[in-house]
Amino acid sequence: MTLGLDTEQMPDEHTISDFLELFEKHRIDCEKSGKYEEAELASTRLEQLRQHEENRRRDELRSQQLQERMRVEELHFSELQQFNEMWDFKAAEFEKHAAALQNTLADRHKQEHLAQLEKMRRETEPRTPRWSKDLLNLRKIQETLAKMKKYAEAEKTKVQADKVEAQEHAMWKAKREARIEALDEQFLHKQQLEMGGLMKRIQSGREEQKYARTSELDRVLQRYHNMKTQMECQQRIIQQRVEKYPITAPSATSVSRPPSSGGRAVAAR
């Protein structure tokens, strides 16, 4: 019996063990029957087949493990992309809501300020000038002189009284405007405090979201690290088995997909 096998027509892995067993049996039979040349040929073919299969399995293992590593990287990239899309959306929604709150408060402040200004100009005391005794006395003298038909003296007194009245009116107006301005500053300060409180709450919410995003990213990266480490450990074990048992050792590595960060609900604010 003579066995020959072209390396380009090697059997698949499902029948290789049968061929190896067949070659080995044929070699032993030839050895026992004294067909040493044929036994030598069978031994050579057996070694060729075994070496070919070992190389094929090593190449197959390298290719398979490379694909597994690439698949892990692709899964990680996809998860990071989903993670960033989700958190970018949360951040955009938060900023949109924050801007709406600021605009609403600013509009309310504007309307309240206009109403307050109108109220202060209407109600702030003294609402009219309080003339001095000197001015009132000058007006009485003016009237008396006019009744006495002393018009020249009455005119002089009127000019003097008008000057005093203008001065007192200017002083009244200045004091009243100063009081209104002080009240207005107090009112605006109160509004600024309210706006400042809102901005502080918004910033606090922004920091909370940033912290939540960072914490979630740390968990995503840790899952990736754990999955990659587990896969590399499994691959090393399989590589060692294939090196030790190149024909019979299994070459499959199982890597499960990590849970997607998109499935978690993290409060935006």
Describe the protein's architecture and organization.
The protein is 80% helix and 0% strand. By secondary structure, it is mostly helical. The radius of gyration is 49 Å and the shape is rod-shaped.
Summarize the structure.
By secondary structure, the protein is mainly alpha-helical.
User: Alpha-carbon distance between the termini?
Assistant: 82 Å
The pLDDT mean sits at 85
Number of strands: 0
Give the overall shape.
Answer: rod-shaped
How much helical structure, as a percent, in the residues?
Answer: over 70%
Q: H/E element string?
A: HHHH
The largest sheet, given as strand count, sense and whether it forms a barrel, is: none
Uncertain runs: 1-11, 254-269
Strand content: under 5%
